[in-house]
Backbone:
């Protein structure tokens, strides 16, 4: 078994904190939501779309296959640029601010429910994701770090807009 830093409860708490943060973005002006966070960077909308799409990958492609010793082939992890491109395009061209936030909250709530329904033992079962040894807790820690990185981008961008 692989060592884990966060407990299931700590992980759930971190995942749950994303929802009120998203709700806070619903008051943004559409223009601020669609302005790139920096030169050559995504907009807040594209970042939220990116996180939404990766949550969908977890819920629909990874979680149904997680079990002790499973070998999960997830092409999205190998071709992440394709997923990122589709997510950014969806956020840029198809979804409104409120749609992105509502879909993100819905899918994140399903992820939280999935994790709450897993026992501590299930969360620590070893499986292989494209040959990389994982547990649910380790995988979700990676996604928490991923969320944190993108949340900081959005928050920094919005701070700059407010101080301008």
Residues:
């Amino acid at each position: 078994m692989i060592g884990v830093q966060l407990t299931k409860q700590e992980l759930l708490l971190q995942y749950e904190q994303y929802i009120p943060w998203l709700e806070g973005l619903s008051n943004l002006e559409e223009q601020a939501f669609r302005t790139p966070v920096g030169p050559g960077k995504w907009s807040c909308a594209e970042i939220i779309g990116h996180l939404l799409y990766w949550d969908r990958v977890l819920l629909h492609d990874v979680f149904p296959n997680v079990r002790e010793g499973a070998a999960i082939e997830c092409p999205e992890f190998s071709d992440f640029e394709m997923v990122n491109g589709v997510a950014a395009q969806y956020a840029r061209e198809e979804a409104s601010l409120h749609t992105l936030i509502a879909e993100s909250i819905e899918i994140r709530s399903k992820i939280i429910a999935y994790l709450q329904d897993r026992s501590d033992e299930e969360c620590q079962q070893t499986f292989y994701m494209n040959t990389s040894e994982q547990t649910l807790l380790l995988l979700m820690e990676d996604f928490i770090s991923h969320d944190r990185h993108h949340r900081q981008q959005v928050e920094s961008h919005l701070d700059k807009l407010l101080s301008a």
Observations:
- The chain is about 70% helix and 5% strand.
